[in-house]
Design a protein that fits this description.
Layout lengths: L1 H30 L10 H31 L8 H20 L3 H5 L12 H19 L6 H15 L1 H4 L9 H4 L12 H21 L5 H31 L2 H8 L2 H18 L7 H7 L2 H13 L7 H5 L5 H24 L1 H40 L6
Helix pairs in contact: 1-2, 1-12, 1-13, 1-14, 1-16, 2-5, 2-9, 2-12, 3-5, 5-6, 5-9, 6-9, 10-11, 10-12, 14-16
Amino acid sequence: MEKKTSRLYFIDAMRAWAILMMLQGHFIDGLLATAFRDPDSIIYSIWSYFRGITAPVFFTVSGFIFTFLLIRGDKTGMQNPRIKKGVRRGFQLILIGYLLRMNLWGLFTGKIYDSFYLVDVLHCIGLSILVIIGIYLLTHHLKKSVFPVVLLSATLLLFTFEPWYATTTFDALPQFLANYISNINGSVFTIIPWFGYAAFGGFLSILFKRFGDYKYVYPVAITTAVSVGSLLVLFSSDAFLYLSEVTGIQVFRSIHFNNYLFIRLGDVLLVFAVFMLVRSLLRNATILKIGQSTLSIYVIHFVLLYGSFTGLGLYGFFHHSLAPLTAISGAIIFILVSTYSALQYERHKEYIHLNVNSTLGYARSKTEGFLAFGFGLIKNTFSKVLRVLGLLKN
């Protein structure tokens, strides 16, 4: 039990790091004045590079955790209780993703803005969970190696052929469906290629599950992650250029000039290596709780920053207007407020849900009574009118 628990500490810590990086990244990117976005600045370049690591890490860790839980039990196929939970979780994330983009004022006027249909992190993670479940159900009765091979193959194929589908608009599809696979309309994330990171996380979790009890699993895992990650970051672009020259395949040359997916995959492996290396220091209860509360943190930060439902958020008031010192100070406060609010919500979640359900139940009972009274009044009045007209007897 101790081994199994310790193996998950660094994953929760990684997820906590990723969500906090996401908070500061969204805040500074949305509110820092344009005049201070200097690509020649070393500080800004370092910040921008590390901000780019956040989403790949978050997707990879999400795929890792879900797949690890999916394959952990003894039951397989449809008998696996994680299937039902995963399907519910996947659709829940997609629904929350749409709700966060809803504008109540627009609904009151009978209007749904185009931004409502845009796809973001939650949509993609929810759909990624559903796709992983689908792959699992299709392969669980085959050899155990098939599931991880399919996941890894999905990552490599999505990343390799990204230049081919990145410019496709998918006009034949309805816009809300096209937004899942094309960012031409403004979707921040799309299922292709971002499912590749979730699939890679699932692949890593299977390796971790199968070899986690080995005595030297961490030294081997850290060495492998550092080696493969460094090769992807430093040499993958040149390798694709070489493949293009040898094979004449144009897609390899296209990857060379825009090799963000494989480089970020290398960054993810390096982040994994760092967190595995310091895993013994990552048992702080607050860090682990933050890692387990990422959905609540994400929802709260989205409401505060982008003004979900009301349109009144920090982004609307301070969009690209803050000086660096103000933006950094504000980001720290924003992180503290969002995280503290989410942890308090998680702490009192059952009490809050109980009160919400009680309030809804009370409102429903009062509404039912009012409707019954109103229906009876209308019925009696209508009957009197019919009797006056001689159309109805007692």
